[in-house]
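User: I'm curious whether this sequence folds into something compact or stays loose and floppy. Could you predict its structure so I can see for myself?
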Amino acid sequence: MSCESAYSGQANEFETVKEDLVKHGVFWPEIRNSSNLIQMLFSLSAVWNWGTILEVQMIRSGHFIIAPTPFYRDTLQRRADMLKNSQNSGRDFYREYFGEMVTEFRRKRSGEVLSYEQLRALEEQVIPKIVGPFKASTFTTIRNKSLGDMLNITGIVPSKVIWENSIQKYFNYTPGFPYVFTVINVEFFRAFFDLIAEVGEPKMAYYIGWAIAQPASLLSEAKLIQYYYITDAKAREGQLRFCSGTTHRYIGLPFYAAYMRDQISPDDIQDTSVLVHRLRKSLVQAMENSPAPWNQLSTAPYTPNETAEAESSEFRLFSDAAEEPLNARYAAFPDMGTSVFSNMERATKGRRLTSESTMMERFRIRHDARVYYPSDQGFVFLPIVFELPLYQNGAPYAVKYGALGGEIADALAGELLRAAKVLTKSKGAEKNLSASCLPEEVRERQTTEGALQLTVKALSLQTLYRTFLAVNDAPLRLRLGPRKLLTEEQVFFAVGCYMQCGSPIAETRCNDLLKSFSGFGRAFGCARIAAMFSDRDCDFT
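Assistant: Here's the prediction. I'll summarize afterward.
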């Protein structure tokens, strides 16, 4: 994509970016009395589904989500880093960056441009009042409200007519067309509009333009990318992370679906489908033989996370019905090209063609780039699961189940335990689930959330190992080093632990997990007094 090639100089869409921003009412670095923030919000949303520090995203036809943009956190952090480095080195990095940005973004015959000192004064007005609600760990969310109800609940000043006119203009909605709003972080939403009233719309539009110009430059201009990150090493890594995050969040499903359609072979899809089927069947059989009332889960209403929609629907755990193909969730998969901005436009148009939500909802919570969890029951693979070291067609069972099998089993176990929490409706449910799987000494070292995550891993491992033993009918001994031979069971555990590498809790997800599981000690012949020996497993399946 052009995003990644922008820093290498292989692609440059900077002039296109400048022209497009003006079309959407972003005149930075000019400050204009004619600026209209509501129109700016909806104009950017209509074309890119992306934009200001307060985003208006359409997740499907007729459903808008208003929320703070995650990238603003990085903008604030880079600003703080530049100011800090300036104090330590005597070189004013933030002033230099601002100066270069103004030079590059300034257009011929432009109007008034603020000085660096004026920018800093404006930031001192805006940032302290907006950063608190932006970084808050708890906030208010309202869901599926009409425009009138949304404005009444939030107390936002701009009139309903102004909002309606912008929606009709940029989305071609006729009066009376049904649409609803979800506002995530109402406190930030209010702070945003309070600042408009306090500093004035022209100045607020200028600050928002400054906040938009920074990520836009990261998509298009090598020189500005290096100023943003200060050093070449940080620029290469930081811009790559920004590109992958932007791709995932704003292009999302159409990009991944197009990639899987064109790059993943039918044999790989079939091979992986068999793996999913076997693991799901193993877990369902264990549930059927368990004294726990898992059968009640078949009709339990289910809302998987705080940012998912509150619409309750029948939740059928591990249904035997044929999985709905990905292209049924997304009506049109546009072909992805070499321009990141064109790709964003295509993905945005495609999103309007479906009645299903195409938000990558739980990515923001799970930071999981391997499996996408839709807003309802189930999960979808992302392309990385078909790459090494997660997957290789024809790999030994020990590798196949230890690597990709672990991802699948984690997803299935996670769905099961989230459903169990709904079923029990008990604050102590998590502790009971953890106590059934984890030794006391392991639980004591964990937070409640940490213990629950480890419980998911324990149930996942138990399901995975049971399935692996059932299919591994041709054991293979693998040589590790000049002498040591490993059984395939031992390789299974070694691969599973290897897949935790890079996680900040890798030791917990390997050692503590295996101390809670009898299969590891048997596979390696551990004595009962050995630290890694266990004679217990999860007892609720």
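Summary: The radius of gyration is 26 Å. The first helix runs from residue 2 to 8.
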